[in-house]
Amino acid sequence: MGWLHTARFLTTAAQLHHLPTYDLPEIAFVGRSNAGKSTCINVLTQQKRLAFASKTPGRTQHINLFAMGRQGKTDAVLADLPGYGYAAVPKQDKIRWQQVMANYLLTRPNLRAVVLMCDPRHGLTELDEILLDVIRPRVEEGLKFLVLLTKADKLNRAEANKALQITKLQAGGGEVRLFSALKKQGVDEVASTLYQWMHP
To answer: Which residues are paired to 32 by β-bridges?
Structure first.
């Protein structure tokens, strides 16, 4: 279970060609700017400041890579992609970033898994659906895919079950889990799933 706790900052890149090339499997974390992505990464890795959780959503404008592996040996990489869909970002920046993200998701050869954060109170948005369409061909080829319904502590049991059922229908072959950083709900299961995906 402690494998994710080994995460350490590797590099940051504003463009795809700035990303290092290696054979290590990569997990990409994606989601809307206010879906709780940074908080989720910090809870999974048990590090308060690994991913920068900003009071202003949409602050992350780079792909941040974190190395993972015991005894200082890297056996996988976590890629934190910029949150999308936040109004405070100028439109041309949004478009540029959507292109960078789509290109990354389509062309990154060592991408093994995508984790999409979604606030279950809002459900999958139009931008989430676009992202699902982008990765669908790769999912059909074997890319692992997990939707995390973050902030699950804000829902009662009936609402949580309903959100799970609806998202499972929308996710088209991906796994769906309830997740709460506050209550640590789903943390162990997600950590275990990601470890197994990266160490088949």
So the answer is: 84
Name every residue whose Cβ is closer than 8 Å to that of residue 9 and which is 6 or more positions away in sequence.
50, 64, 65, 66, 67
- Kindly tell me the burial class for residue 129, based on how many C-beta atoms sit within 10 Å of its own C-beta (0-12, 13-18, 19 or more): exposed
Rg (CA), the chain: 16
Tokens of 163: 């959100």
Q: Are 145 and 30 in contact (CB under 8 A)?
A: no
pTM, full prediction: 0.91
Q: Among candidates 128, 39, 26, 33, which has minimal Cα distance to 76?
A: 26
Per DSSP, the three-state class of 143 is coil
Q: What is the pLDDT of residues 2-54, one digit of tens each?
A: 899 999 999 988 888 899 999 999 999 999 877 888 889 999 999 877 876 55
Q: Cβ distance 74 to 67 under 8 Å?
A: yes
